[in-house]
């Protein structure tokens, strides 16, 4: 479409927009001179303009118009691997269809955009192919991903995007009756997703409520990220094709100027305005595209606080609007006045350079508002800063006000205030005494580490904390609140050093004192720390019992809501460890939703939940979902976190877990080495987290078949964990099991059996017979017994392993694959092949052939063929020979896996 053509369309539209709808076709026929395409383009704009104030009717008519435009013939049409089902929407870019995957690979529903014909030009096709990969790489948990794309047989581009079943952002906030703080927290999730895209030089260009959906579980999803850029005109024709919505367009977009990240910042300002006030910032005579554009270019936005006041004065339903925000109309105006007014108006500045420099800066001001800190948008000088200080420290400020009133009042008032001052003086003296006591205690504690006073004795951090804990109990007998706070701090420090057994009794004592004193904040903080120590010590049932009363706390205030979110996160960890995966999944989702609502997706607490959730998703075979979440979280953490921060190491580990299962293993190894380096620098070589990182690095080496390297590392990990946790901890079982598998690969089956028996003993005692880690220990033990020729014992343990996997993970899970494979070997080597070859057939069905993994499929195929051959089906011999030839070529004659198949072939042929 040329610039001249667009101008002609625009001129005709503005000429006819004020006419009655029934006269449009007649006047268009006269004006367009037989150009039917021009008639259709102008008519589309006129219909959209007329329906702008009636969104539900507009959607319905849009779907009908789309059906007439594209024809019912499109239903059932194949586009790549997808089949179109039904139209679900239409916009300026084109039709949107619900589609399903039709290639039989797996079930999947997507939303497919069929780009409108006026954009179907050669230049568009070239840009489409060049840029769709960039959009496909845009991975963030709150951004609906681009799944596929192509060009139809008649040359029209199509895009397959993640299908999101939800309601738009503003409607969700109204339905849930979110208060202002909850709305801002929800909006911060949107900011996090936009920041992620901006960091990759991708601008949305068409942010609006309908492009930001919230699912029933509270997960926010941004749609169409980068799609407007994909189908927009090149810079030289910026005014020719404008893929944006006038109601949510920035002034520079309307003027046809180059698009930058400032466009999205302006649109976010519009969205925030609507979330807070339920309306837009401009006064309009008519809700038409041209009216929206004129307002954006010419009008000054109304302050949010003034907008709601004006609505009330004009008789609008101000009470209902305020009630949806859990406020009165007067309180809503007060809450909006000042900081929120300033934040919104700065985002809506006409000049891009006068807006926030980045979405991060906008989000930073909103977080400052949530935390009662000064916001940059106001720049209010000392009076404003003082007001913010007074709000953050309301109690101390009120005490100062009492003292001031005492000085200024009359004699009678002064006498009364003197009494109040004496009471407050007593409080102040007590607080000062408390502060001095804490300072004296800390000074004495640090003196223990002073070389001059320690007289040459080397005092470790562990010894320092142990002495401090002992000193607390003796020194603060008559100051129980001080004792409780210091014990809680000591418990937190001990746990941070990985001294979980030392931390637990300190947290328990602090919790007890907090409960007895009625000091809720001390009690709750100590209880959470106690639960964290219980989890580290693998006391999962005790942790769940401790969490029950914390989860029962009322969520009416922000402090209780944060407590419940933290408790739900810890509960998810315990449930996951206990194999209660459905409950753990729901708990992680709830914790992530709550942490994000309270603090934003970019907050560490939200990211911590996301990282742990990734590991569960991998365990449940939801690997693509896990990778998307892990990559997005790591990218966000890298942007804001120091190079030696353990939080960064956690994010790295989260993605490495996925890649160790999905590949590429080279990237997984690089991430694991980076994690080890960070943890050593930040936490020390012997910290449990550093030892865990070494264990995970060795697991990647094992997956790469570097068994000698992996064995050395696993042995070091096992020794450190025995020293840290004793001989009955699940982490010791993990290291023993890992080392056992290495020993088997290195031909040391006796050592492998001994280690596998130790792992099994610990896991049976800790988890019982139906846990997935118990199944893994049984598998390793059975494999060792096979190598030692103990076929009866091996078969018994391998059958139990399959049963435990099926019980723990479900009969359809692929986790039992290795156990089924080894069970087939056991049956054949023991000389009584199953007549139905059930284990072999199950294993074969679990791993369908893949072009890039032919040897693994051939290994399973060879086992199945050997089983059938052993049962007298001679026709299986040729399949077995072919599979064996492929394995010899791919893995070599001396590979342990090849030798296993050779042994089975020899047994089967007898």
TrEMBL record:
ATP binds at residue 113. SUPFAM superfamilies: Protein kinase-like (PK-like), TPR-like. Gene3D superfamilies: Phosphorylase Kinase, domain 1, Tetratricopeptide repeat domain, Transferase(Phosphotransferase) domain 1. Keywords: ATP-binding, Kinase, Membrane, Nucleotide-binding, Serine/threonine-protein kinase, Transferase, Transmembrane, Transmembrane helix. One of its GO terms (molecular function) is protein serine/threonine kinase activity. InterPro entries: Kinase-like_dom_sf, Prot_kinase_dom, Protein_kinase_ATP_BS, Ser/Thr_kinase_AS, TPR-like_helical_dom_sf, TPR_rpt. The chain crosses the membrane at residues 394-416. Residues 82-370 form the Protein kinase domain. Pfam families: Pkinase, TPR_12. This is Serine/threonine protein kinase.
